Amino acid sequence: MAETRKASRFIVPVAVAGVAAATIGLVPALAASGDPDLPEITARQLIEKIAASDTQTLSGTFKISTDLGLPALDGLASGFGALDADGGSPSADPSEKLTELLSGSHTLRVAADGPERQRLTLLDGSDEYSLIHNGDDVWAYDSKSNEAFHEKGASSGAPEKDRELPGTPKQLADEVLKAAGDTTSITVDGTAKVAGRDAYQLVIKPKQSGSTVESVKIAVDAANGTPLKFTLSSVEGGKPVVDAGFTKVDFGKPAASEFTFEAPKGTKVTEGAAEKGDEAAKDLPEGFEGGLPGLGKAFGGSGSGEGVNVIGEGWTTIAKLDTGAPAPKTDEAPKEIQGFLDSFGDKVTGKFGSGTVFKTKLVNALLTDDGKVYVGAVTKDALVDAANAGR
Description:
This protein has 391 residues and is an alpha+beta fold. The chain contains 9 helices and 18 strands. The chain folds into 2 domains: 277 residues, outer membrane lipoprotein receptor (LolB), chain A (Clam); 104 residues, TATA-Binding Protein, CATH 3.30.310. Helices cover 19% and strands 34% of the residues. The strands form 2 sheets. Strands 7-8-9-10-11-1-2-3-4-5-6-12 form a 12-stranded mixed beta sheet, with helices on one face. Strands 13-14-18-17-16-15 form a 6-stranded antiparallel beta sheet. It is globular and about 60 Å long.
């Protein structure tokens, strides 16, 4: 019991790390083979082409590669093992399973037939994890554990955009373009061949200094305007933070059988409530219900920022939250958690006092010793400057 209480004190700093990781969503990569000769197009015309795209049906395969620059998570789960005494959520629950896409490389099969039918399958050797949406039914099935998760009525009344497959190049592109403004440079940088399709390369870069984002590159299908590949690069260089793209794609209508599912005999099925998402939101700290401003739905919310103080604008937006409680001392944490926190946390000091910056290649978070949290896709110095300004 004492170990459980000790571990629970470190949920806040580890949750900050989780928020940083969650900003990525899902991602895939693939190499182009030869640059097609296409008519010239301006950035405005290409953006209009994306906006006018009305692709309702497709099937194909895409690869996901994510490199957040985080330390290995081995052993971290055991540090919270005592906190999962109630059994936690089933392994087939999408909220748990899809977090695997936040690191490493993965291959997925996708199929879509309008806003009411989608399927995503994560391939892992001979094992498969499938997420199927068909009308009011949402199924998730894990062949490795032979467990399934079912939710009835989950899409009822939901906006059409909220029923898109998570992490596809189009969804990622929509989020970036929606946030673009005077702080952003948008250009067309040549052409590419993606999944056998001719594509234009749209390049988006911050004009502001202090952002961790070097560029976002979107390969756009020259024929129908559908984003085929999404690459997010960090100012730190190295591998892209997010590289998401189709290796095969067909815009024809998938067979109806793609979206039907019946749990195999002997499968353990867990039923979920349609209201589960609303109930989970009630458990979030005050101010996080609407997501973090400036970083949009990558943080799981609308980005309205109610209850969170917003500092700056555009690519250098910082969200500030006052937890109202002193930060726990990492040297009191269980050794597994302490090692994780120390491996990607830098101690910093300034006019604000002292604290720790938890860093990834994209999102950094400053947790001050007096319990304030500053987080954004900005550099460590930008976070310290914001804290020093007392804003």
